[in-house]
Design a protein that fits this description.
It is built from 10 helices and 18 strands. The chain has 2 domains: about 40-230 and about 340-385, Heat Shock Protein 90 (2-Layer Sandwich); about 230-335. The chain has helices at about 1-10, 15-40, 45-65, 80-90, 130-145, 195-200, 205-215, 350-355, 355-365, 380-385, and strands at about 75, 105-110, 115-120, 125, 160-165, 170-175, 220-225, 230-240, 245-255, 260-265, 270, 275, 280-290, 295, 305-310, 320-325, 330-335, 340-350. The strands form 4 sheets. It has a 6-stranded mixed beta sheet with strand order 2-3-5-6-18-7. A 6-stranded antiparallel beta sheet has the order 11-10-9-8-13-14, with no helix packed on it. By secondary structure, the protein is α+β, with helices and mostly antiparallel strands. It is about 30% helix and about 30% strand. α1 runs antiparallel to α2 (about 15-40) and α5 (about 130-145) runs antiparallel to α7. The radius of gyration is 25 Å and the shape is elongated. The protein starts with a helix and ends with a helix.
């Protein structure tokens, strides 16, 4: 099948047919790589060996110059692997499935479920499908929790951000849902352990195990942080059309169910806080007392409702304001929003960083020690059969 598709691509087909052939070839190679991983006894070591082979080819090409040509490229753009993975989930959303990455441009996409931002994160060594598998598993894991009834949130979305930091390609995946306790920080990556099963749902504990093993093979790191609802104090500055300035302090709290609420003047908890000014407004500024960051909004209709969301975290905004203009007054409603969720951060050294001998010394100080290979690992196939 692979040879047939490769021959079809060599015949220089029309652009539409070329894309179909390329997608089919990518799918077949992906399934082949997945089969390889599912039958190996030590995924991390298997991936690491492939990485070292590509590293040797890359070094040789750098030393020999452009005259040295390998049978395949040992490099691939980090964000392309992420793009291919997320495209499988958004492919049916309008034209998103037909979009392509443009060199030098940041790829952004947003719909009711996803918020995606893919920056140039450099090139990685090894097999692109392994990083594809990492991102795909993380998205599947996030969608499971974001889709649960008790965690559904029309303002918080599953987000995928790809960037570069200190010689690493960085993948950040946030999903609304329950936090992960410190007692489970290491358990969630163990073969057979499932947070879904521990909460009464069916799960075999393969997703995060695969991800952890792949990341270890790349000599990278994976960690997570819980995004929690917290008490905040906001200062709202309203400038009216007459030049009058009105300031309002809004305090939020977290109720017994862990949800954010407003506190009124008497300290009572309310889902929202309503107030009004006796004329139309020109601008509205919102700043959080803790960090002093100020966000300014000026686009308001003469009449009707305008809604603005916390722009600091577009994937999980902490508040929403509805501004309704009337003939001679303006009504404002402030609602704190639920931000509870988990953000995973995956760091993989880029090919460029691996060329620098000093980087390997520094990365050992920054990254946690990879898990020691299990001398007698239980085959993944056995767990699947169970």
């Amino acid at each position: 099948v692979v040879s047939v598709l490769e021959q079809a691509l060599e015949q220089d087909p029309e652009m539409e047919d070329r894309q179909r052939y390329q997608d089919a070839l990518n799918s077949v190679l992906y399934l082949w790589d997945l089969l390889d991983l599912s039958t190996t006894d030590n995924i991390a070591m298997y991936v690491a060996n492939k990485l070292y082979e590509c590293e040797e080819l890359h070094y040789r090409k750098v030393l020999d110059g452009e005259e040295s040509e390998a049978l395949f490229s040992p490099l691939f753009p980090a964000r392309r692997a992420a793009f291919r993975a997320v495209r499988g989930f958004i492919g049916e959303a309008g034209e998103a499935g037909n979009e392509q990455l443009v060199e030098g441009e940041v790829y952004c996409y947003e719909d009711d479920r996803f918020q995606v931002r893919l920056e140039d994160a450099g090139d990685l060594l090894g097999n692109e499908n392994y990083v594809f598998l990492i991102v795909e598993n993380m998205i599947n894991n996030g969608l499971y929790y974001a889709g649960q009834k008790q965690y559904r949130n029309r303002f918080a979305k599953l987000s995928l951000h790809v960037g570069k930091d200190r010689g690493n390609a960085v993948f950040r995946i946030y999903n609304p849902g329950p936090g992960i306790g410190d007692d489970f920080r290491d358990k969630i990556y163990q073969l057979g352990y499932s947070t879904k099963r521990s909460r009464g749902h069916h799960g075999k504990g393969l997703g995060l195990y695969f991800v952890k093993q792949l990341v270890n093979g790349y000599e990278g790191s994976i960690d997570f942080s819980n995004i929690c609802n917290r008490e905040h104090t906001y200062v709202v500055r309203i400038e009216c059309e007459s030049g009058t300035v009105v300031n309002r302090i809004i305090e939020t709290a977290v109720n017994d169910r862990g949800k954010p609420v407003c506190k009124d003047e008497n300290g009572a908890q309310e889902k929202e806080l309503r107030f009004s000014v006796s004329e139309r407004i020109r601008s509205l500024e919102v700043s959080r007392h803790a960090d002093k960051k100020t966000h300014v909004f000026t686009e308001f209709g003469r009449t009707g409702k305008t809604s603005v969301l916390d722009p600091e975290h577009p994937d999980h905004p902490a508040w929403r304001m509805d501004v309704t203009g009337k003939v001679s007054a303006t009504e404002i409603i402030f609602r704190p929003l639920d931000t509870m969720g988990v953000e995973f951060t995956i760091r993989i050294p880029t090919a460029e960083s691996r060329l620098d001998p000093q980087y390997h010394d520094s990365v050992q100080q920054l990254l946690p020690e990879p898990d020691a290979p299990d001398e007698n690992p239980e085959p993944v196939s056995k767990l699947i059969e169970d």
